[in-house]
Design a protein that fits this description.
Number of helices: 10
Order of helices and strands: EEEHEHHEHEEEEHHEEEHEHHEHEE
Distance between the termini: 14 Å
Oligomer: single chain
Radius of gyration: 22 Å
Strand content: 25-35%
Length: 303
C-alpha cells in the first residue's frame, strides 16, 4: 500500500505546498481523499496517474473539494468511460451536485455522488472503508479508515510434506481453508496453516479537533494521517477554528496505539518549515513524520 501526498497546506496553497489531497494505491486500486484546487497538476507532477474510481471528501470547505471540477474535466478529455464515485458527508450532496453541474460539461462518463453517515462501512471484499464523525466547526465532517480484512495464515510446506500431502491443488485447498481427504485421512487447514494474519489499517482524519472517534477508528492502525494546522502556542486559535495542534495529533496517535503518525494540513505560517511542529509531536509520539507535497509513504504488513 502506498500513500502519495498531493497537498499538505491548510486554507490556501503556498509556493511549496498545495491544498489538501492524497492518493492511496492498493493492489491496483487508487483512492483519493479530498481534492483541493490544483490537485490534477499535483497528480501529474508526482506521477499518481488518473485511474481512480473513488474520491472521498472529509468535508466541503473549498480547500478540500474545488479541485474535483478540473480533475473531472481532465478525465473527460482523456476519453475516460467508467464512472467516478464521489463520496461526501451526508447533507453535502446538493453542494457537490451544484459544483459538478456548473463546472463539468459533457464528460463521457457517469459521476455518482453518494452521501455517507458516520460509522458507515463500505465493504469492498477484502477490505472496508469505514467512516467516523470528526469535529470541525459545526458542519458535517468525516474521517476515513481503510481497513484490510485478515489475510490467510502462513502455509507450512515442510509440515505438508511430512504429512505426505503432494504439492499441487491440495496445498491450495488447505491454504484456502478447505479440508482435504488423503487416502483414509482427513487433513484440516489447522494441520498446515498458521493463524490468520492481520491486514493493514490506514486512517485519515481530515480537518478536526482531537476527538474520541478518531482514537477509536485508529486503534492499532499502521498509519494515522492527522491534521496539525497549528503549534501548541496557538491552541486557542485551533479550538476556535476546529483544528488540531501538532501535540493534539500526537496525543491521538499515542492514545490510539498506532504504529506511525504523519502530520499534514499546515497553516501557511508553518508551511515553509514544519519542523517545529514535528518536534512538538515527537515529544509525545516519537514515530512522527511531517508530510510534504510529493511525499510517498509505503505501508508494509505488520509481519
Amino acid at each position: 500500500m502506498r500513500i502519495t501526498f498531493l497537498g499538505t497546506a491548510a486554507a490556501r496553497p503556498s509556493v511549496a505546498r498545495n491544498v489538501s489531497s492524497l492518493v492511496i494505491q492498493r493492489e491496483g486500486e487508487h483512492f483519493m481523499f479530498d481534492c483541493g484546487e490544483g490537485t490534477q497538476r499535483q497528480m501529474m507532477r508526482f506521477g499518481t496517474g488518473f485511474s481512480l474510481d473513488d474520491i472521498f471528501f472529509s468535508h466541503l470547505h473549498a480547500d478540500h473539494f474545488l479541485g474535483v471540477i478540473g480533475l473531472l474535466r481532465t478525465m473527460g478529455l482523456q476519453a475516460r468511460e467508467t464512472p467516478v464515485r464521489l463520496w461526501v458527508p451526508r447533507g453535502g450532496e446538493a453542494l457537490m451536485h451544484a459544483a459538478v453541474g456548473l463546472g463539468v460539461e459533457r464528460v463521457p462518463f457517469g459521476v455518482e455522488i453518494n452521501g455517507l453517515d458516520p460509522r458507515q462501512t463500505l465493504d469492498r471484499g477484502d477490505y472496508t472503508i469505514n467512516t467516523f464523525r470528526t469535529v470541525h466547526r459545526g458542519d458535517g465532517s468525516l474521517g476515513y479508515a481503510l481497513v484490510e480484512k485478515p489475510r490467510l495464515g502462513r502455509f507450512n510446506p515442510d509440515r505438508a510434506r511430512e504429512l505426505g500431502i503432494p504439492e499441487g491443488p491440495l496445498w491450495g485447498q488447505l491454504h484456502r481453508g478447505e479440508p482435504v481427504q488423503l487416502d483414509d485421512r482427513q487433513i484440516t487447514p489447522d494441520d498446515v496453516v498458521g493463524p490468520p494474519r492481520p491486514g493493514r489499517v490506514v486512517v485519515y482524519s481530515g480537518d478536526t479537533r482531537p476527538c474520541q472517534e478518531t482514537i477509536l477508528a485508529a486503534s492499532g492502525a499502521d498509519l494515522l494521517i492527522h491534521e496539525a494546522t497549528f503549534s501548541r502556542d496557538e491552541s486557542d486559535r485551533a479550538r476556535q477554528t476546529g483544528h488540531s495542534t501538532a501535540r493534539d495529533a500526537a496525543r491521538v496517535a499515542r492514545d490510539a496505539g498506532v504504529r506511525r503518525l504523519v502530520l499534514t494540513h499546515f497553516s501557511p505560517r508553518y508551511a515553509d518549515d514544519p519542523r517545529a511542529l514535528e518536534r512538538e509531536a515527537r515529544a509525545v509520539f516519537p514515530e512522527t513524520t511531517s508530510a510534504s507535497d510529493g511525499l510517498v509513504i509505503e505501508v508494509p504488513f505488520a509481519e
